[in-house]
Design a protein that fits this description.
- It contains 5 helices and 15 strands.
- The longest helix is centred in the N-terminal third of the chain and has 12 residues, at 37-48.
- A hairpin with a 2-residue loop joins strand 11 (218-229) and strand 12.
- The protein is 15% helix and 46% strand.
- By secondary structure, it is α+β, with helices and mostly antiparallel strands.
- The protein has one domain: Alpha-Beta Plaits (2-Layer Sandwich), CATH 3.30.70.
- The protein is globular and about 70 Å long.
- Strands 1, 3, 5, 8, 9, 10, 11, 12, 13, 14 and 15 form an 11-stranded mixed beta sheet that branches. It has a two-stranded antiparallel sheet with strand order 2-4. The chain has a two-stranded antiparallel ribbon with strand order 6-7.
């Protein structure tokens, strides 16, 4: 069943530079043109002060809890944006593993090479793709309007943040250009909207049937929420298409102020652990 009008929190973000790493890209680190859902979730968790706790798989392990973390798991997210150009940085990455140190310095207690004292560990060259002049639009919907207001107030005055507000790498700081509640209407769209879009297989609020198959784009399994298992992050995934803005004869929500469609991901209804 389609919900004709939906309330959302719109967050318009500018980043001078950003890198949204494609998983399993190493010596050449590729970037998505948009932050994946897990990156957006991380930003919201940061501003709300949601943190992982030692010895727990999740920030809160209680059942039927009304905390920010459990409410965040019910969030619906729409993401689109663009960037001016992409560049590639050449840098060195350090590996602090014992084997890497021994390969470089031969013994554990040595740090001298050719008469110069160096950092511990080893290092490898790496190319990192970086987006420049990035503008991202994030839309958040939740059945609890008070929770959306909490997110809004914390973005306005981020006194609970865990770290500097960033999206991507720790150095990819964000500038909030606009932050407000909007009402989006269901409409049929057709045109080139000149933004990249994440279009999830299961779109919240839209009875879209086979719309996903009609949309052009590269298919990805995007990370969403995660649990800590054996010291590593174990993610949940959602299938989504990366679309370049060419869309036609599709029903979805529309922001008439920005003149762009919005595709809300249903993270509860379409996840695969």
């Amino acid at each position: 069943m389609t919900i004709e009008t939906i309330k959302a929190l719109k967050i318009k973000i500018y980043q001078p530079q950003a890198h949204y790493r494609v998983p399993f890209s190493y010596q050449r680190r590729h970037t998505y043109p948009l932050p994946p859902y897990s990156t957006v979730i991380g930003l919201v968790a940061n501003v709300l002060g949601i943190k992982n706790l030692p010895g727990q798989e999740e920030p809160c392990v209680k059942e039927n809890c009304d905390c920010f973390y459990h409410k965040l798991q019910q969030i619906k997210i729409g993401v689109c944006g663009n960037f001016r150009y992409k560049s590639t940085e050449y840098t060195w990455l350090r590996n602090l593993g014992k084997d890497s140190h021994l390969k470089r310095f031969r013994t554990v207690d040595n740090r001298v090479v050719a008469g110069h004292i160096e950092h511990i560990g080893g290092q490898i060259p790496c190319w990192i793709d970086v987006l420049n002049d990035v503008r991202i639009l994030i839309y958040l919907h939740h059945h609890d309007d008070t929770f959306l207001d909490e997110i809004k107030q914390n973005f306005k005055n981020p006194i609970n943040k865990s770290s500097i507000l960033h999206m991507g790498r720790a150095e990819d700081w964000i500038v909030i250009e606009d932050l407000k509640e909007v009402f989006l209407k269901s409409d049929e769209i057709n045109g080139n909207y000149k933004h990249f879009f994440w279009i999830p297989e299961r779109i919240f609020g839209i009875e879209n049937g086979k719309e996903f198959e009609k949309i052009n784009g590269l298919v990805y399994n995007l990370t969403t929420f995660y649990k800590i298992k054996d010291g590593a992050r174990s993610f949940e995934y959602i299938k989504a298409k990366l679309n370049d803005g060419n869309l036609g004869d599709i029903h979805t929500y529309f922001d008439f102020e920005e003149e762009i469609p919005v595709f809300f991901s249903d993270l509860e209804g379409d996840k695969n652990e």
